[in-house]
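Lecture 7, part B: from sequences to assemblies.

Below are the input chains for today's worked example.
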Amino acid sequence: MAKKGDWVRIHATVLKAEERTAKLPEDTQKCDLEMWTKGFLQDETAEIGDMVTVETAVGRLEKGELIEVNPYWSHSYGTFVPELVQIDKQLREALFGGEE
Amino acid sequence: MALAKDYASVMGRSNDIMKKALGLDYATYESGSVAFDYDSLMADTGYTLEEINKIQSKTAVGNTPLIELRNLTALSRKYAKPGYGARIFAKDEAANASGSFKARRAACAVAHAKKLGYKGVIAATSGNYGAAVASQAAMQGLKCIVVQECFDSNGVGQPEIVEKARACEAYGAEVIQLTVGPELFYTFLSVLEDTGYFNASLYSPFGIAGIETLGYEIAMQCRELLGKDPEMVVCTNAGGGMMTGTARGLIKAGATNTQLVAASIDLTGLHMASDAQFNKKSCTTGHTGFGVPYATDPDHSDVPRSAARPLRYMDRYVTVTQGEVMYMTEALANLEGLERGPAGNTALAAAFSLAQDLPEDAVIVISETEYTGAGKHVQPQLSFARENGIDIHFGDPATEDKPGVNVILPMTPGHIKYKEADINRFRASLIKKAIKAHCPDVTKLTQADLEFLAVEVKRDVDFVKEVIATL
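Predicted structure of the full complex, as structure tokens:
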């Protein structure tokens, strides 16, 4: 459960697929235009999935579905890519190899 | 009475919203036909090179190092004929506040917003520009919102763009993230209207004027270090601002004999507004998906007339592949000890190969590097590609590269080879699009229109007439 003042992430649908009139490829045409932002929860209490209002970092009020409380970044340096150590080895050999 | 906020209503108020959000009426520069007064638009920004320098020197922007890449030059020479292989230099733009050359644009746009009394700034960007505006807004005491296209319909974010969102938040900005599609512009306009903030567009004259210091510094640093202007400057090309601003700065420094080469990653075949293909890209900027449409139709941006008009300045347009750029990024770290983000290295991959066409005493400058971090780095970008079913292997990029299907890492450094794009085709395309948009009846084109179009594509009036004859 989230309470008033918690930093949360919300999700909203800006345009439903059928409302999208811009020139779009077929695959995109089938999707809603969705939006995410973050802010301080304005409702007294809320559960994940509730429609809530937040006050964003600039003080804007925005409504949406509560999807995360205390959101954090989880992007990373990825998993091992074996080709990269091969490149490193190859580069050093190409530049310095065969030289005394 | 509250204004209707539905799509059609907001888009219908686009011109008014824009006028208020830029403090600039573009109508005053229009001729009513194809031509508009680009020079006055740029001059009326009211900022001279000296004034921009003053703003930037107060905001931790500019005067970045020009670094000679000696080992990459030596490596490049191994694949050149005897006596060939130009010296390669990099303008280390990662040294700017916020870690990219975009800080130059943002410093001016934010300073201008502040001067005009706006309380905040908004930028529509999935790139480094978001962090740049957020950083400058933090420094100059304004609020900041960044609107970015970040996720596909499964909610999977491009790691490179997610990192940029994180950086924006680190600088105190609100980040509005959207799924794929050009209606981002609707959200952008709607928030502009509600907040009354300044549109810190990438394409405003204030932003482009901010890049002129980059070209100017390149000329001055080369003269001091080498006693001459560079033979060639290579700019990574997406929206065209880098090429436009750098070229204008070089010209202001009197470096008029420097060949200007635009370089983009070839993403031919991938649709930029496709939800399914969004995460099949292994790079999110510096590619032809932005580079070609913005070069040939600069005015389809978020301002009525873009100040970024790269075909006015570029002499050549070359492409490289995703695999070549990833490889060069690894080479920059391993052979030069400079760990930088991949996107800025598009020009470097091109320069590595272009250098082999020039004699050893020639000088090539790549106009930028960018910061690197989680998500925005060779390793996560390649591992993300692999997770998305992209085939990554060593091979010959020239014959095997298929954007969205594979990433071909060059089997040797000698397999890094730029491809010359047909710049005259882009020039013809610009002329056709401009006529279609502003004066479809070619019999009504004025002499001023013809002269304008000639300048727009860096050719003469005869070239323009030849293109018109094919319509």
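Note for the exam: The mean pLDDT of chain B is 95. Keep this in mind when comparing with the next example.
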